[in-house]
Amino acid sequence: MQTNPILIISGSNRPNSNTLRVARIVEGHYHHIGVPVEVYSLDQLPPEIFLPEAYANKPAPFVAVQEQILQSPGLHVVTPEYNGSFPGVLKYFIDLLKFPESFEDKPVAFVGIASGSFGGLRSVEQLQMVFGYRNAHVFPDRVFVPNISGQLTAEGKLVDGDLDQRLKKQAAGFARFAHVLGAAK
Fold first, then answer.
1. What is the largest CA-CA distance in the chain?
2. Which domains does the chain possess?
3. Residues of the chain with pLDDT > 70: what percent?
4. What SS3 state is found at 107?
5. Residue 107, C-beta contacts closer than 8 angstroms, at least 6 positions apart
6. How far is CA 84 from the centre of its chain?
């Protein structure tokens, strides 16, 4: 379908986060249907990105991920909910990306995860506003993973088969969505 890979963004910089574990599950679904995909976890952000001069002079590793975003046919964002919102590091990451071209007409899908019963609904809705402001095309099929600590096995598999099927359906649908929008350009 695509030549450049869809980029899955794991929206936490916590090492070995549940967010990254869910991103890897989503990655597996894309691989299963033969769609090129890569995962970028915010725990890969170079430390020098947090220096004040990074706004004007981006470190080389950040320039590389910026290019991945520009070339990707779509972004699949997996975000946790921290304190009723998405993580500050994810907002900082978004703020450092080129404006407006990073998200202009870019297809984007969302998965929310949370310890609570709403599964990251608030974080996803807030991100939809940010990406909408940046003129992204938001895929309407969102997936929410509630009570995340009870949803994953030690091996990083989902306990709930229905939830796994929703992630599988979302990946397949988003791949088609990104392909159609890319072909329309």
1. 46
2. 6-183 (3.40.50.360)
3. 98
4. strand
5. 73, 74, 75, 136, 137, 139, 174, 177, 178, 181, 182
6. 18
In whole angstroms, what is the distance from residue 65 CA to residue 122 CA? 26
Query: Looking up tokens 């779509």, which residue turns up?
Result: 74
C-alpha distance across the termini of the chain, in Å: 15
Instruction: Give residue 109's pLDDT band: very low, low, confident or very high (50, 70, 90).
Output: very high
| Residue-wise pLDDT tens digits, 74-83 | 999 999 999 9
HSE-CB for 11 with a 13 A CA cutoff: 26
Q: What are the residues whose beta carbons fall under 8 Å from the beta carbon of 81, sequence distance 6 or more? A: 112, 113, 114, 116, 118, 119, 120, 121, 122, 123
| 98: number of Cβ within 10 Å | 13
Residue recorded with tokens 């981006």: 58
Q: Both tokens of residue 175?
A: 């791949």
Please state the rounded mean pLDDT for residues 94-121. Answer: 95
